[in-house]
Amino acid sequence: MLIQNDVENPNVKYIWYNGNVRFPPLERILTRSDDEDDFAIIGKRANIEDLPSGYKILGYFNTPYSNKLSSAIWLVSTKNNIDLQNGNNFVFNSPNIDVRSAFEKFINNNVVKEIKPEYYGSYLLQSNKTSIKLTNISLCLIGLLNIAVSTLWIIKDKNLISILYFYGFSINQLFRIEILRKVFPIIFISTLLICLAWVVQFLIYPLWDQEWILKFIMALIGNSLFLLAFVLKTILYLVKKGGNKI
Q1: pTM of structure
Q2: Sign of the C-alpha dihedral computed for residues 21, 214, 141 and 193 taken in this order
Q3: Tens digit of each residue's pLDDT (9 = 90 or more) over 180-208
Q4: Would you say the C-alpha torsion 153, 159, 163, 165 has a positive or negative sign?
Q5: Which one of 10, 125, 148, 186 has the largest count of C-beta atoms within 10 Å of its C-beta?
């Protein structure tokens, strides 16, 4: 989904989309036929004079608490016929993993200047900056807490590891046992949650950004590698401390 607008008239936006796109809630006044490519969705306080000819009003935004949508005019088309006279500001949303590649195909590989979200729009509000920082700090603290709890969890097994080692279990067998008991459940449950989030994103909210899921996957991989290394280090330390078996 690509949104184009002119800075001098930001209320009028040109919308192009491919696939199944969920629009904001609206009150329909017309039923769109399959052969109609262009239609408009407007706010109830929008300036109707800004509506170009050739666009039929499909409905009104049913968002009474949104000042922007109440004054907005969305000119929606399924045809990729971008005209730079309509503005040179673009906002692009895509469920594709390689968003940049999908965007370049959408605009026929024209040269564009990318503006980071944190330097534009509501991201500049101090309240939003603070909330983002608090969210990142909270995620870091949760990650550290998870590592600390998992580490204590593994340390508690040191007596069991020592007993199994002297009972005749090899280092490889001990490593596999600890992986199955401690590391695998964390990886399995986290993977299920990631898959569930991915399905929800694609089936319910297809315009969600995927960056948070990718960061969660990277955090899971990093935490899993740490736990694997710590399990192996704990086993080797206990084996070395216990000496050779008779």
Answers
A1: 0.50
A2: positive
A3: 887 888 888 888 888 887 777 667 655 55
A4: positive
A5: 186
